[in-house]
Amino acid sequence: MKKIDYKELTLGLLFLILPTILIMYPLLDFLSEYYSLLFVNKHVLIGVFSAGIITAYLLHKTKIRFLIIFGLLLLIINILYNSISASSFNEFDAYYVANRFKINTSIFVFGWFSGFAISRWRYYLIVFSILLTTLSVILISDMEMSNVNEMIWLVAPTVLYLFYVLFVKELLKTIQKQEKTNYVLVVGRILLFSLIALFLFWSTIQLLDSKIDHIQNEITQGQSDESDEEDSDGENEDKDKDSKDDDSSSGAKFNLDDYLGLRDRLNVSEELLFCANIDNFINPTTPNPQYITLYHLNQYNPTLEQFEVDPDSIVRDLFLPNPTKIPQYFTQVNDSVLVYDKMERATKEVKSTIYIAGLSPEVFVAPSTAYACQPISIEEEFKKDYKFAYNVFSEVSELNSAYFVYNTQDESIINYQENRYRTLRRAKSYEGENERFMDYYTEVPEGELYNKIGHLADSLTKGDNTTIDKILSIRNYFLSKDEKGDPLYVYTLTPGKPTDPNIPNASMLDEFMFNTHRGYCTYFATSSLFMLRSLGIPTRVAVGFMTVDRSHKTPGWYWFYGDQGHAWTQVYIPEYGWLDFDMTVSNTDAEQSPQPDGTPPTPPTKETYVGKGVITEVDTLSKTMQVRVDKMIINDNGIALDSTNLLDMSFDVNQAKVFAGEQPIALKNVKLGDTAVMVSFDYKLGRIRKKYNSETIENYMKLFPDPITIMEVHVPKIEEEKLDDATKEEENSAMKTITDWSIYVLAAILLILLVLMLLPICYYLWLSKKAKNHSSITKLSEANYKNAHFILNQMGIPRDHQTPMVYARDVVDPKFGTHFEAFVKTYQKLKYSEDQLTNAEVDLIKEFHSDFNQKVFSKYSKSQRFFNFIKPNKWIHYMLNLNLKK
Amino acid sequence: MSQDLEHTSPNHTQTIAEDTSRKNIDVLIENIGKVVKGHREQIIQIITCLIAKGHILLEDNPGSGKTVMAKTLAHSLSGEQAHSDFKRIQFTPDLLPMDLIGSHLYDESNKDFIFKKGPLFCNILLADEINRASPKVQSALLECMAENQISIGDQTYKLEDLFFVIATQNPIEMEGTYPLPNAQLDRFFMKISFGYVSEDIELEIYKKQLEIQRSQDTVEAVLNMKDILALRSKAEEVHVDDEIIKSINNIVRGTREHSGIILGASVRSGIILLKCLRAYAVIHKRNYVIEDDLAALVKPVLQHRLLFKNLSAEGSAIDSIVKTEISRLSRLNLKK
């Protein structure tokens, strides 16, 4: 048995095995996390790996019968595995243990193999580290990497390790063999590796490219959305664009903007936007649907023939909250709209519950006149269908109804209609109304067309005394039949362009009213608006959703699809406020929506406790949260706490679901300092009395368990989104930085290469100049000596370890026929002797340069010479091995 | 490494003053080369030892031309007789020191003991198969080589001024031999081996076999003893640059620090190397030492003085040390 080299053994253990174990640590960590190796602990994994690698390394180095031991080991492992998986004391346990054993042993065998290979094959570590780098790149491209830092953490160690291995391997070899380090080899390897690394980097970028694109798209989209928001002066209409995603049924996107003007065609989508439960009934069994208003249109642009939202409208009866910004279960109220809506008689409070599906939850939809909004939770089973829900409280006129054009057979509805007309006929006239109000809502643009409309309206309403009769006459006009018995007006989504080609900018409205009689809701709304206004009736156009009661199984529940986007007229009746009068002729399509009505979502369990406040502590381990509560709702009783007397409460969030807006998130993503809404449906809390009177809040809170069990936690979505954007932007900028850096690195490498190529030429020119004319014979001969060596080196005949004389005599002179030997001899005399040079020798040195250069260069063509000169590797070789010391 | 000592380049100027003895070195080498084919390097090494006042040990298989070499060298030099005084002793285990040194004999006529000189009293001594003799004989010989004189009783006999020992030993038949201890090997300036000649030269040797007997007898004496002594004094004038001395020091110290070498070179080996370098420079008609000389001499001078860890180190250790030094020297700039 040969003597064991303990020095080598220790060096190998310290500088090769230890770093390898260290590098495997994060990688195994990532692997176990990524592939959810639940059976094993990563510490055990790394322990097993190190055991394998160290044992194998020691065994191989100490020359103990390696293969036999390995074979025995494999045999034992196999037997153990079989026995474990065969043992049937408990099936699950056996499976569990066997799997864990399998993973551990495979890691051990991998470690074993690595240890053996490191000891046995010189290049194994290089191959190994390249494999590791590749593996990490694959992992990155495969994983949902949340940020660049994580990515760098995974790649950087392996890359560093590769560099390390390249250097240390060479160093150890040198130490063992007592040789000088071959720098050329190392530099060559580093260069090669850099190329590989660049390639890997590039491929990572390529692999991630699609992801990056996706992220970028999202970002730009987000930005454009934001800018739109700014443009629209806080109005909501553009938000509807949000609903355009995942619409596949009709190919058209739902966009309420289309209802703003008169176009040649209207695109409708058929996706479910939301469903609503409107608690408004004529009698206990007959529901009275209300149109869902989004906003009112007061300004009309006659040239573009489209409506605009007037930001300076004198009647501000539109409640426009952003439901997502209201804390869960808390109510945002705007009483001022109730003043503006001018409803004085026959009003009632109607509660509606809106379940948002396709629509953006930031758009507030409600029957007019809404004044309060309360976001609520959605029952678990409906969460996949509906993303958001809120209660709306509206003041609704008893006389308002979606039933105006439909010819229902329901007796109660017919009765209701009759009653309502009767009541309205008794309504006050517009005398005494605010003049400015009347002017604003009866304004008709100047023009021949509008005069024509006015005349038409006058002729239609001849003989009608009351407002409602005039309205009914106009409605009847739209519903009337022509001479042939066909309907005069036809509902169509594609009214087409004006037929008269002689009038280039023909009015769509003109076409509709006096020619084609074909159009969609906005046409009907616009024409009736001007007819009514010309009669002096204050009218406006409302945009929103037509409520259609299709199913009588679930009274009060209505489903709203994309094709139910609607525009209609609202008429102001004194004391009764704004009432909906939809002049649009019946559109059978809308009544028979492509999708049947769904099952109404069951109302969520009654919340018993809601607390809102700033999160002060999150314990993800014991799943508790500390919140400084400033507002509470206890059994529908809102308690607002004094800002000086906030309550620090702890909540048990074991069963809780955490939502950022509509998105469920993990508890660990909850950020301290955020405002959280804690919701509990615990029925036990429902028994606690609502009111606390004289007692202090502290005493009252003693009735509650500590901690309170919470079912839902809501943290703000907007901030979360911003955070998302921020991280995405960060990621993007990091990506950009990486790309930028890689460009810099590439440029630097190119520059270095260029310099490396140009330097030899510069060096040659400098040497040549020195070798041609120099005052001192010593310097002259030195320059000539270097010059000759350099030229020969670049031409591929380096001296290396030969002595100068042997090199000159045996290599150079026979090849080129130069007098290099004589020159070297003289040079050596100058170097080692104390004698003076003879005149002949001085002449020899002086004449050497031109003769030598000419003879050497004559052997090579010009291009050969050039390419030989610019080769950096030769130059580096020369500088490292032959450069003369100063 | 066959070195061409003829400088044919037209621009080259003879750097050393014309000197018959130096000129004749070339003739001497040529002369020996006529008989001993293909061993030019070894011829030069032997002459280097001769001029450096040293002795040489040839180690090679039988029949590689060791004896022929020694004989030819002796014949090429002329002494008081037609040729220099050449003696050959075949060493055997039963050889006694007296057989070398000589002994006192009783002279009947003078009734006195007279000293009968042994074969050591000669100019060139070929000690064949030195390792076959007993240590006693070996040490007697080596003592003479070191002291250049013989002491018997109260009388001291001086050896010839030019006393040059060419010892040979056979590396293969080690049985029944007394291998020279390291301390005694140290006395030889160089230990060289001949090795096999190239195919062409071997062919030539066979062709000339028929006439070799005649030619050997008629080897001309091209140099005389005075010439050799003159060369020796020339060698003492050779200039050794400080950097070369530094390199010798580096090399000698390097052998002591090298991990492949158990026993490094002594100070004496450094001195011997220095002497050999000067002699070698004289042979190459220089009065200064250059790095080529080092490259040529370090191995034959130092190798037999060192103890190596293993065979592979024996081949490469000195080479790597010399390589480093040569590249150090050849990188040096000129003195300003």
TrEMBL record, chain A:
- Basic and acidic residues bias located where? 238-247
| Species for this entry | Meridianimaribacter flavus
Classification via InterPro entries: Bact_TGase-like, Papain-like_cys_pep_sf, Transglutaminase-like
The name of this protein is Transglutaminase superfamily protein
Report whether ATP-binding shows up as a keyword of the record: no
Write out the ranges of the annotated region (Disordered): 220-250, 587-609
Report the PANTHER family cross-referenced here.
PROTEIN-GLUTAMINE GAMMA-GLUTAMYLTRANSFERASE
Pfam families found in the cross-reference section: Transglut_core
Report TM segments.
9-28, 34-59, 66-84, 96-116, 123-140, 152-172, 184-202, 741-766
Where the record annotates domain Transglutaminase-like, the positions are 513-585
Name the domain of life: Bacteria
Cite the entry's keywords alphabetically.
Membrane, Transmembrane, Transmembrane helix
Stretches of Acidic residues bias are at: 225-237
Automatic annotation (TrEMBL), chain B:
Task: Please give the start and end residues of each transmembrane region.
Answer: none
User: Which Pfam family is one of this chain's hits?
Assistant: AAA_3
Under the heading InterPro entries, the entry gives: ATPase_AAA-3, CbbQ/NirQ/NorQ/GpvN, ChlI/MoxR_AAA_lid, P-loop_NTPase
Domain ATPase AAA-3: start-end pairs: 55-190
Limits of the ChlI/MoxR AAA lid domain:
254-322
Matching PANTHER family: METHANOL DEHYDROGENASE REGULATOR, MOXR FAMILY PROTEIN
Q: What is this protein called?
A: MoxR-like ATPase
Native organism is Meridianimaribacter flavus
